[in-house]
């Protein structure tokens, strides 16, 4: 899912307009993660240092803003796989990436009602989201198979399914300790079996 285009998508975007859009997304992202997506848009505009008209020029509806935040979060989660692999061995990169994915999942819970409204009859972009998440996992798993820390028979989509199970099963309790424990078990599941 890509962020909705601004209304004047055919013309080049001025640098200040691009900065305003990015600030609005960053502030909305923090607000939606801290509470939910019912935060007043006026507060988001004020916190971003712009007027409400600027917010509506970039995001004509609340749903458009929420979808842009969702898309930005998803982009960050997916691209973080490569960044983490550049900085850490595959096993550590996978575990750190799972923490980032857990943050994304928690943020998405705060936006889900508005996302569903915005998706309407077309439904959520779940296949695209899942494909991108699975691709990120696959990149980390492949690096781990090369170094021998991960099993070669583990399918990236199976890891995606396990992670979704962790997040769905903990959505009511949402205790960080339980989530960490379960994510550690997922990492253990992809390590080579003891002979």
Keywords:
mainly alpha; Arc Repressor Mutant, subunit A; about 75% helix; Tetracycline Repressor, domain 2; 2 domains; elongated; about 200 residues; about 0% strand
What do you see in this structure?
By secondary structure, this protein is mainly α. The protein has helices spanning 15-34, 41-48, 52-58, 62-87, 90-119, 126-147, 156-169, 176-190. The model has no long low-confidence stretch (mean pLDDT 86). It folds into two domains: 15-58, Arc Repressor Mutant, subunit A (Orthogonal Bundle); 63-190, Tetracycline Repressor, domain 2 (Orthogonal Bundle). Helix 1 (15-34) packs across helix 5, helix 4 packs parallel to helix 6 (126-147) and helix 5 runs antiparallel to helix 6 (126-147). It has eight helices and no strands. 30% of the residues are buried.
Write the layout of secondary structure elements.
Layout lengths: L14 H20 L6 H8 L3 H7 L3 H26 L2 H30 L6 H22 L8 H14 L6 H15 L5
- Summed up, the domain count is 2
Q: What is the level-2 CATH architecture name of the largest domain?
A: Orthogonal Bundle
CATH class of the largest domain: Mainly Alpha
Largest sheet: none
Q: Determine the N-to-C terminus distance.
A: 43 Å
Helix vs. strand class? mainly alpha
Q: Which residue ranges are poorly predicted, with pLDDT under 50 across at least 5 consecutive positions?
A: none
| Average pLDDT taken over every residue | 86
CATH topology of the largest domain: Tetracycline Repressor, domain 2
How much helical structure, as a percent, in the residues? over 70%
Distinct helical segment count: 8
